[in-house]
Amino acid sequence: MTRRVLVVGAGVAGLATARALRGADFEVTVVERRPGAPLPGLGLNLPGNAVRALDALGVAEQVLAAGIPVTRREYRTARGRLLFAVDESSYWAGVAPSVCVRPGLVLDALGTGQEVRRGVGVVRVDTSPHRPHVALSDGSEEVCDLVVGADGVHSTVRGAVVATTPRASVMTTASWRFVVPNPGVDCWTAWTGGGLALLLIPVHAGEAYGYASSSKGGAAGADPRWLAQAFARFPTSARRAVEAALERGRAPYHSPVEEIRIDTWHRGPVVLVGDAAHATGPVWAQGAAHASTTYRRRRTGCRTWSGFPTVYLTTWLPSLAPAPTGPPTVRCASGPEPDPLSAPLVSGALCRRTAARLPAGIRRR
Q1: Whole-model pTM?
Q2: Residues 248 and 132 placed together within one structural domain of the fold
Q3: Bridge partners of 202?
Q4: Separation CA 30–CA 8 (nearest Å)
Q5: Other CB atoms within 10 A of residue 115 CB
Q6: CB 3.0 to 4.6 Å from 96: which of 48, 158, 181, 223, for a disulfide?
Q7: Cα separation of 237 and 200, whole Å?
């Protein structure tokens, strides 16, 4: 008997889920509240574990070809002094290469061959008496065996699982993002200091993706002029990027940075994935990795459909990096150590004071 699954949301989490389930012979319907095809978007930093997950879904080569490889990360002070650098290629050796790419291109790759009902959102999810009944915004109703909520931080489906609302990130309440002509950075480069953080990553030929925010829980002003004032004394490359972002015809993208922390990701036949279940701040660069976690069919001992949600969750294996074959190099410059809460971290690699927190496979030299 074919089982019907409704996936709500056509972002990375929703399309990855639908692609995996269709490959496992489920009948899948995808709805997305936004009308029209996805826009190119700004930038998406995909570490090796994210690319490995995409490879399991058969789209890694397409994504890698569309972006710029991330082979090195540099952490600098607000005055430009190098604190330490991470050899990204070594860190993810044996897993997959890292890449920065326009998010729309990732969605195009995941959506190839998939039909999406766009401009259709969820109004209500009713899980009684046996199969979920989902009322949609176009007036129709879907009756299915499983509902997958992949509808983001402000998920409607999540209300059928747990009553909660997003909370502001402890690192920053908001951020600014933009794509500008590359001001001269050749790798992932972050500058932090004075309660501020700015990250630039090459994302396309001649272009760089920028992320700017406060740190330590501070606020990032909602007026674009905040950017110019906040980063006026940062190094030349950072200032040029901000100036270019403000000179362009459209203002940089400003948004709150919110998190979701809940104790359970499913209730009966309703399951949450991606940001709907575990949204984190973008500075961790793991949202897309966790959203595209690969689904694998196993012998689980589950013999009834009512037990499937639990099996579904336990067989979504997080694509976390295995222990590296050799310890990657983290080069730390001499001098004062960086504040562990002020830098946009990906791997958690810091200097002397935080060495005890490093994974066993990482050493500083």
Answers
A1: 0.79
A2: no
A3: 208
A4: 6
A5: 10
A6: 48
A7: 9
| Residue ranges making up the domain that contains 280 | 4-65+102-166+260-317
- Give the residue among 288, 90, 350, 338 at the shortest CA–CA distance from 359: 350
Residue 264 CB burial class (10 angstroms; 0-12, 13-18, ≥19): exposed
Contact assessment for residue 302 and residue 323, using Cβ atoms and an 8 Å cutoff: no
ω into residue 129 within 30 of 0, thus cis? yes
pLDDT-derived band at 216 (thresholds 50, 70, 90) equals: low
| Torsion angle defined by CA atoms of residues 98, 170, 314 and 130, in that order, rounded to the nearest 10 degrees | -130
Task: Indicate if 240 and 252 belong to the same structural domain.
Answer: yes
Q: Which two tokens stand for residue 312?
A: 């579904």
pLDDT category, 1, cuts 50, 70, 90?
low
CATH number of the domain residue 301 falls in: 3.50.50.60
| Phi, psi (deg, nearest 5) at residue 108 | -60, -45
Q: What is the mean pLDDT of residues 218-247?
A: 89
Could you tell me if 141 and 135 are in contact, meaning their C-beta atoms sit under 8 angstroms apart?
A: yes
Residues 220 and 235 in one domain: yes
Domain count, the chain: 2
